[in-house]
Design goal:
Layout lengths: L2 H20 L39 H14 L7 E6 L2 H15 L4 E5 L4 H9 L4 E4 L9 H10 L5 E6 L11 H10 L5 E6 L24 E5 L11 E6 H4 L5 E2 L4 E2 L10 H38 L4 E2 L6 E5 L3 H6 L3 E3 L2 E5 L6 H14 L9 H6 L1
Parallel strand pairs: 2-3, 2-4, 4-5, 5-6
Antiparallel strand pairs: 1-7, 6-7, 8-9, 10-11, 11-13, 12-13
Helix pairs in contact: 2-8, 3-4, 5-6, 8-10
The chain binds pyridoxal-5'-phosphate.
Pyridoxal-5'-phosphate (PLP) binds next to helix 3.
């Protein structure tokens, strides 16, 4: 490699390291070490086609993908025989899949989702030309159930395809599955398909004590979880899980690949399943549970510190997404905070410890003219 290229790459590496150090606005776990998988980057792992149907292309990681799916099937309480899923290229692909599945099951169904849903839900409606009705949200980001019932009862002659948020993007709010099921029953809607968008919280809630449990013991159709969020991965990825019975609606055999065309994309990156497999095997349920508890506790710590400063903020139960009034552009940029209108949030992931939170609070305190004593929230309140 020429000196120029080496220099350019090493400068870029430094920049990436620095930006990683301070990043806190998006729900990405940035602390992991997959360097023992480096040798596999010399190979073109491609799981094209169905993860459970061997393809003619032999350089794949299907075995590992199957184990990842089986891990999530256990977590989401569905028998392996009844479940099907695959490692997607991100949470969005899982949402597209779930909503597509809903439409294949109920071609004249109407898609319902709250206004706090991820933008990929509206995109799915556009891509698949599904009529889409949006409900208002409560101030904590949860669906406004009265409005949902109003829309459902006005359209009770149509099947319902529902996108349920299991942790909204901006506020980490969880839509209540039981309330939604009650509303469907009250309105005598028997044809419904519920897709759960659990991008971040989907890999946390199953490990948190007393948290609402959304799983296949209840009549849900599919779940989408991002792999690069709570679990963490250098390559964006995700997991989509659904019921095998629904799969028959869409599968077709393709001779050219020797597999089944059950996935949205054709070629599928075979490194992500390997990464997720390694993460699950090395951290296990216990490790993931500890990490989830760590994130929730640190989020509560950040929330307390903001509250003690009388700084407008919000934190939902079982969430690690701390929402607060948008600070200066300088802080937004420095900490790479995600913003929406007057609000910003910090998602307290494994790589955000109390020390980083303290530094952020110091900087915020300084900014709002409370430089003196910001390290002691009680003194602030007293003054
Ligand atoms: C991040 C997110 C998504 C999209 O996930 P990607 O992996 O970024 O495609 C979908 N829904 C919610 C609630 C999210 O927070």
């Amino acid at each position: 490699m020429s000196d120029n290229l080496t220099e350019e790459l090493s400068a870029f590496l430094k920049q990436v390291e620095q930006r990683t150090e301070r990043h806190s606005g998006y729900p990405y776990n940035l602390s992991y070490d997959y360097s023992c998988l480096l040798d596999f980057f010399k190979f073109s792992l491609n799981n094209l086609g169905d993860p459970f149907v061997e393809s003619n292309y032999g350089v794949n990681s299907r075995k590992f993908e199957q184990e990842v799916i089986s891990f999530f099937a256990k977590l989401y309480k569905i028998a392996e025989d009844d479940s099907w899923g695959y490692v997607t290229s991100c949470g969005t692909e899982g949402n597209l899949y779930g909503i597509f599945m809903g439409r294949e099951v109920y071609p004249d169904g109407i898609l319902y989702s709250s206004e706090d849903s991820h933008y990929s839900v509206a995109k799915a409606a556009r891509l698949f030309r599904i009529k889409h009705l949006t409900t208002r949200s409560q101030s904590n980001g949860e669906m406004e159930y009265e409005h949902f019932e109003e829309l459902i009862s006005e359209n009770r002659n149509y099947p319902a395809i529902i996108n349920l948020n299991i942790g909204t993007t901006m506020k980490g709010a969880i839509d209540n599955l039981d309330v939604v099921l009650d509303i469907l029953e009250r309105n005598n809607i028997k044809d419904y398909y519920i897709h759960c968008d659990a991008a971040l919280s989907g890999a946390m809630l199953p490990f948190l004590q007393d948290a609402p449990q959304v799983n296949f013991n209840k009549p849900i159709g599919s779940v989408s979880v991002s792999g690069h969020k709570f679990i963490g991965s250098p390559l964006p990825c995700g997991v989509l899980l659904t019921r095998k019975a629904f799969l028959e609606k869409i599968e077709t055999s393709i001779e050219y690949i020797g597999s089944k065309d059950t996935t949205i994309l054709g070629s599928r990156n075979g490194h992500s399943p390997l990464i997720l497999w390694y993460a699950i095997k090395t951290r296990g349920n216990e490790g993931l549970a500890e990490e989830a508890a760590f994130c929730i506790q640190n989020a509560q710590y950040l929330f307390q510190r903001l509250t003690l400063m009388n700084y407008p903020c919000l934190l939902n139960d079982f969430s690690n997404t701390v929402v607060f009034q948008k600070p200066s552009e300088l802080l937004v940029k420095k900490w790479q905070l995600a913003t929406q209108k007057n609000w910003a949030h910090m998602v307290v992931m494994q790589n955000i410890d109390k020390q980083k939170i303290d530094t952020f609070i110091d900087e915020l305190g300084f900014e709002i003219g409370l430089s003196e004593g910001v390290n002691n929230g009680l003194r602030l309140i007293a003054s």
